[in-house]
Amino acid sequence: MSDPQRREFLAAAAGIASLATLSGAQPAAAGDPSFMNNVPDPALSGKDLPTFKFALEKSAGKVIGNSFGKEATVEQLPISKGIAGVSMRLEPGAMRELHWHATAAEWAFVIDGRVRTTVIDPQGFAETNDFDPGDVWYFPRGHGHMLQCLGAKPCHFILIFDNGYFSEFGTFSITDWVGHTPKPLLAKTFGLPETAFDSFPKDEVYFARGNPPPAEPGPPLQGWKLPPETHKYRLLAQPPHATYQGGREWRVDSSRFPIAKTIAGVVLDLDPGALRTLHWHPNADEWQYVLDGEISVTLFGSHGRYRIEQLQQGDVGYIPQGYGHSIENTGNKTARILIGFNTGIYESIDLSQWMAGNPADVLATNFGQPVELFEKFPHRDVFIAGKSGPGK
Questions:
Q1: Would you call 228 helix, strand, or coil by DSSP?
Q2: Kind plus residue range of the DSSP H or E element containing 174
Q3: Among candidates 119, 110, 98, which has minimal Cα distance to 155?
């Protein structure tokens, strides 16, 4: 490069740098999904791996009457920057009031009881659905919705959000908004006298309580205007996605549930002693909630870092994107785990699958072992191994 060319290059580079400074450009922060593969996460860059377990159901949460919400975000579990979760229980007649989430989509799995939801999208399409145990819903980020207990029994469900910084207690609730808006604005918006709002709540209600809802939902004020894609999927009403020696897996992502473009889910049953074998997810973080049983979860974080946590019913586990891990049933009954991923498409690479994808001579050279040994390894992806191993 000649001197004049070099001077022009340096001047242009300096100009770009000054523009960046003037525009307030800042280094990317860990936890920003667009840079998570480029910026070291301080929570994961230490000599030892941090804990990836949180006893969600043993936490205090927010309790109103006999309804509660308990959350696991980066505040409770600092490693969980990509996904947050909530355990919510509603008593009969209770409703998680009309609200929206500005920074996260919501995916839910019903454990007990029955739930009714309504949701509206930016085009004004609205849908009401009733959910039974094993059913799933998904609401895109920013779409207004409510959750209501149906029938005479309480309902319990798990909510999964595609942002670990999201907080269930920082949502935008309709009573909070209306209660803090000047009455002239409300009167003008709705074409009613200001006095119509005199007895409205002044603060956020969060859990509204009233008469149990009717068995059949009533029509919206605007009449029925259904969206092109439903927000409901009957996960456990389907046959398992796959059955193995030692367990079963139900899986749903956007290939089966098109509206769920940012969250995929799995229900995993492991028989006593069975193992969801060593694997990793190249495209997503993993959030685990133990529905039943006792499990041992391993986490491999490179450079000799390895950690094992024991999880019981009601506990949460978290695996960062790309980290190797496994799940083993250490109890004497079937363990059932609900697993959420912050992606619309499920992907995994299993260690057994990786090994089976290589010639025996490559593996022999890699490990310094005889070629004959690797001929005895599984020639397929094991995925779930039974108590005595994968079998043939």
A1: coil
A2: helix 174-179
A3: 110
Tell me what pLDDT residue 392 has.
62
Structure tokens at 319: 């695996």
CA distance 288 to 310: 12
Q: What angle do CA 58, 169, 344 make, to 5 degrees?
A: 90
**Residue 229: helix, strand or coil by DSSP?**
coil
Q: How far apart are CA 299 and CA 157, in angstroms?
A: 27
Torsion of CA 212, 180, 105, 138, to 10 degrees: 20
Element (H, E) at 247: strand 247-252
Give the single-character DSSP code of 365.
H
Task: List, by residue number, the catalytic residues.
Answer: 96, 99, 101, 106, 145, 168
Q: How would DSSP label each residue in 76-107?
A: TSTT-SS-EEEEEEE-TTEEEEEEE-SS--EE
Closest CA to 336 of 134, 70, 162: 134
What are the distances in angstroms from CA 67 to CA 92, 109, 116, 136?
9, 17, 16, 20
Joined tokens for residue 183: 């009455």
Distance CA 72, CA 315 (A): 10
- pLDDT tens digit string along 5-31? 444 434 444 443 343 333 344 444 444
In this predicted model, what pLDDT tens digit does every residue of 301-346 receive, in sequence order? 999 999 999 999 999 999 999 999 999 999 999 999 999 999 999 9
Question: Tokens 């992502």 appear where?
Answer: 253
Question: Cα(306)–Cα(304) distance, rounded to whole angstroms?
Answer: 6
CA distance 85 to 173: 18
Read off the pLDDT of each residue in 25-53 and give the average, rounded to a whole number: 69
pLDDT, residue 170, reads 78
Residues whose CB is less than 8 angstroms from the CB of residue 258 and which lie 6 or more positions away in sequence, other chains included: 229
The whole-angstrom separation of Cα 337 and Cα 369 is: 37
| Predicted local distance difference test score (pLDDT) of residue 206 | 96
d(CA 123, CA 144): 12
Task: Give pLDDT tens digits for 336-354.
Answer: 999 999 999 999 999 999 9
φ, ψ (nearest 5 deg) of residue 211: -70, 150
The residue length of the chain stands at: 392
Distance, in Å, from the CA atom of 120 to the CA atom of 110, rounded to the nearest integer, reads 21
Helix (H, G, I), strand (E, B) or coil at 204: coil
36: closest CA among 307, 318, 322? 322
